[in-house]
Design brief:
The protein is 34% helix and 21% strand. It starts with a strand and ends with a helix. It has one domain (2-169): 3-Layer(aba) Sandwich (Rossmann fold). The longest helix is centred in the N-terminal third of the chain and has 16 residues, at 27-42. It is an alpha/beta fold and 170 residues long.
């Protein structure tokens, strides 16, 4: 069994004259990322590896999450920046077999579409909420009945949880 954590980067700013890849997190993003990180740690979902897009907002999201997951190695991968679902899945399939839980920090719409492709079964409320909106700092927790990440392919999987900063605040 494998666990896949798909995390959309925290809320970013849109400063004028800044390239999309260099957009920083805004105040809301700085508050949301630690909330999600604390949830991951509390639920004991600590990943064996974090794959992070190279965009500034995903790197900043990881920087705010990593203190809560101190033993987790991060790999920054250009292929995750703005990637469609099938490209994200190809990167996931390269994960070493020894990794049981994998965290991917990326972008919409690719991340959302990948999560939806795995969300054909599982927690009905989580599936419904995922189908409505995948907000910034949204986290999909997907159980995959696999022995090796190379076998990852939707719809084989189960959406266990879909957590947002708003759902943790209130």
């Amino acid at each position: 069994m494998r666990r896949l954590l798909l995390l959309r980067h925290a809320k970013s700013d849109w400063p004028e004259g800044i390239a999309d890849a260099e957009r920083p997190l805004n105040e809301r993003g700085h508050a949301a990322a630690p909330l999600i990180a604390a949830f991951i740690a509390k639920e004991k979902f600590a990943p064996g590896l974090a794959l992070v897009s190279t965009a500034r907002r995903t790197r900043e999201t990881w920087a705010l999450i990593s203190p809560h997951l101190p033993s987790v190695e991060a790999k920054f991968d250009d292929r995750l920046y703005g990637a469609p679902a099938d490209s994200i899945l190809r990167v996931i399939r390269e994960t070493p077999t020894a990794i049981e839980t994998l965290l991917v920090i990326g972008h919409n719409p690719g991340l959302e579409r990948l999560a939806e492709s795995f969300a054909k079964s599982g927690n009905a409320d989580a599936i419904r909420r995922l189908g409505k909106k995948y907000p910034t700092a949204g986290l999909a927790v997907i159980e995959l009945p696999l022995n090796d990440w190379k076998e990852a392919a939707p719809p084989a999987g189960r959406l266990e949880m879909f957590v947002t900063p708003k759902s943790l605040e209130g």
